[in-house]
Amino acid sequence: MVAQWLHRLKVKFTKKTVADLAVGEYGDTEARGLRVRVTKAGTRSFYVLRKVRGRAERFHIGRFPDWSVENARKQARQINQEVDLGENPNEMKRARRSEMSLDELFDFYRDSHLQPHTRNPATTITNYELYLREKFGGYKLSELTKLQVQRHQSELHSKRGYSAANKMLTLLKALYNRASSNGLFTGASPAIGLKKYKDVQRERLISPGELKSLFSALQDKKFDNYRDLWLLLLITGARRGNVQAMQWSEINFDSGEWRIPVTKNGKPQTVQLIGHAQEILSSRMALKGDSPYVFPSKSHAGHLKPLEAWKRLIDAAGLQNLRMHDLRHAFGSYLAATGANQFVIQEAMGHSDIQSTSRYVQLSGDVVRNSIKDAAKILLKDAGQFFDTIH
Q1: How far apart are the C-alpha atoms of 186 and 179, rounded to whole Å?
Q2: Domain of 30?
Q3: Helix and strand numbers, DSSP H then E, in the chain
Q4: Torsion over CA of 247, 350, 326 and 274, rounded to 10 degrees?
Q5: 364 lies in the same domain as 253
Q6: Are 176 and 279 within one domain?
Q7: Complete DSSP assignment for 11-51
Q8: 267 and 243 share a domain?
């Protein structure tokens, strides 16, 4: 009887009254449904007691004094509003606890879509590792907000350029679309309404002076782990993702060839390993361990990802606005400068169409100028007197 009486007792909650309450459960006279439970151990816990669909249900708030009386009342009002609207905050909490995180969604996306249905899943996996896992991987799908995504997009744009920001946004939209179409998430995507940055074509050539500075900085021992990878990017013209993930099984030392199973355009590519490229690989082969990768590491992917080290390198070299991908551009441009035609460059760089190759030929202004001079000499070799007459 005493226990029932204590259960029904109501007092006006203040810091002092709550601290002085004896063992039992008490209701607040100021906030509907707000109660505090006092245990024999002296623990005081706030909760709201309400009927939902005809059944009594407790909605836990938190312990006193971590939760003040004022904050407990505010939370009680919020809970009451949700219950009055027909919602059950406890069910919502249970749903959030069982909801997928972004990491879990990506694992599903990778296994159900990327690996079975895309030509080059490694590129998308790398993009997730670079642009989303560390920032948002642990977030529940409903926790991620549009404002957070927008800020991250802006940060990526300022630090890594428009391409990184666009890759992040494209992948995030794809993940939430996949979650929605498979019934894994019914909320709104935090990427809805966000637009990609305008694609600006970069034509960044490394000058001979910059190459000299780059080679000088590479001598520092702190870059020992990455030096060979960067040199191979420069002297093979292969894509960064392919060089990073290069495996020993793809290398044929007898023919001097590297057979890439799948490239960005979904096709295999054979890269000719000439001179220094063979020397680099031979020296690494002599130190080969158990890893299948030429550039192994303890990363999630199992191979090197030297993006942060690259930033340190270009700072040490005193260079500005230079990306690792520009090493590939340098290869194509200097190949054009030797007089190689578009078809040779297309084959060497693994382009799927001649249009992708034309940019490198256009960059080689000296070759174009010299070719025009040679053609003009042939065309006009017998027109000397004619020009003398009209001029």
Answers
A1: 8
A2: 2-98
A3: 20, 8
A4: 60
A5: yes
A6: no
A7: E---HHHHHH--SEEEEESSSTTEEEEE-TT--EEEEEEEE
A8: yes
**Torsional class of 45: left (φ above 0), alpha (ψ -120 to 50), beta (otherwise):** beta
What tokens were used for 269?
């590519």
Number of independent structural domains in the chain: 3
Specify the CATH number for the domain of residue 260: 1.10.443.10
Can you tell me the distance from the alpha carbon of 229 to that of 241, in angstroms, rounded to the nearest whole number?
11
Torsion on CA atoms 332, 337, 339, 343, rounded to nearest 10: 20
pLDDT in tens, 319-342: 988 888 888 877 777 666 666 666
- Identify whether 377 is part of a domain: no
Residue 343: CB atoms within 10 Å: 10
Residues 295 and 219 in one domain: yes
Q: Are residues 13 and 161 in the same domain?
A: no
CA dist., res. 119 & res. 359, Å (int):
26
Tell me the one-letter amino acid at 367.
V
15/110 same-domain check: no
Contact 73, 60 (CB under 8 A): no
Residue type, 363: L
CB atoms within 10 A of CB 17: 14
List the beta bridge partners of residue 293: 247
pLDDT, one tens digit per residue, over 96-135 is: 667 889 999 999 999 999 988 887 788 899 899 999 999 9
Is residue 94 assigned to a domain?
Answer: yes
The CATH number of residue 28's host domain is: 3.30.160.390
Q: What is the pTM of this model?
A: 0.47
Confidence of residue 372 (pLDDT cuts 50, 70, 90): very low
Question: Token pair of 44, please?
Answer: 């005081």
| End-to-end Cα, the chain, rounded Å | 123
How do 251-252 and 44-52 pair as beta strands?
A: unpaired
Q: Are residues 226 and 296 in the same domain?
A: yes
**Is residue 376, in this structure, part of any structural domain at all?**
no
Rounded Cα gap, residues 301 and 290, in angstroms: 15
Q: Which residues pair with 303 in a beta bridge?
A: 296
Same domain assignment for residues 146 and 235: no
